[in-house]
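Thread title: Can someone regenerate the structure for this chain?

I was given the following input by a collaborator and told the matching C-alpha cells would be attached. They weren't. Posting the sequence so someone can regenerate them.
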Amino acid sequence: MRKLRLAAASGTLVDYDGKARVRQIRTVLALLALLIAFLVACWVAEVRLDVLIRKSGAFLNYIDDIFHLDTGDAVWTAPVEWYWGLGRWLIALAETILMAYAGTVLGAFAAFVLCFAASHNFTNNRVLQFATLRFLEFARTVPDIVFALIFVISFGLGALPGVFAIAIHTMGALGKLFAEVVENIDVKPVEGIAASGGGRFAQIRYGALPQVLSNFVSYTLLRFEVNVRSAAVLGFVGAGGIGDRLLISIRKFYNSDVSAILLLIIATVMIIDYGTERVRHRLIGAEVKR
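Best answer:
Regenerated them for you:
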C-alpha cells in the first residue's frame, strides 16, 4: 500500500512538473511573440534608436532655449518679464476650461440618453442597439481634432468648433462606458417597477439611475480631465483657447512664452485632476458604504 501511495505521489509530481513546464514554455513563446511584434511595429513606424540618440541633443537644446529669455538669462531670474502676457493667457486658459466644460456636459448628456438604447438589458430592439453602438463607435473613433477641423471650416474660428468636437468625442467615449455600467446593474428593481405598471422613464429613474449615478458622475469627471488637455490642443487648428496662443508662440519662436504657457497648462490640469480625483473617491466611497 505504501509503495502504491509513493508511486501515486511520484506520478502526481511528474504530472505537475510537466504542466508547469508547458506553462513556462507558453509564457516564453508569448513573450517572444510580443517582442517580435514590437520590433516589427518599430520597423514599420521607422522608430530608429540611432536617430533618437543623434537628435536627442537638439531636443534638449530646445528645452533649454524655452527656459531662457531673449537676453540669455534664465526665465526664473525675471518672472515679471517671463509672464508678461499673464492676463491675456489666463483669459485664453479660462476659455479652454469653459470649452472643455461645455463640451463635457453636452457629451455626457447625449451619452446618458443613448446609453440605455445601447445596453442589451434595456433594449429589446437589437437593430436599435446595434445602430446606437455603431454610432457611438464612430463618434469616439474619429479624433476630436478632426471634428474640430470640420467645424472650424463650417462655423469659423473660435471656441464653438472646439465645444462641438469635444462633445461628440465625449458622447462616444462616455456612451460606451455608461452602457457597460447599465448592463451590470441588478435588474430586479427594474423588473419590479415594470411589473407594477411603471413605464420606461420610471424604470430608468427609480430602477437604474440610483445604481449607476455615482459611476456616471465619476466617469464624467474623469472625462472632463481628458477634455481639458484636448481643448488645449484643439487651439492648434483654430478652435480657440490657450492652444492658439501656444501655437503662435511656437511659430514665432517666442521661446520663453512657450515655457510660460506650458507651465500654466500643466498647473491647471494638475489642479483639475486633483479636485476631480477627490470628488471621484468620495463618490466611490459613498457607493461602497451603501
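The chain has two domains: 2-47, 83-289.
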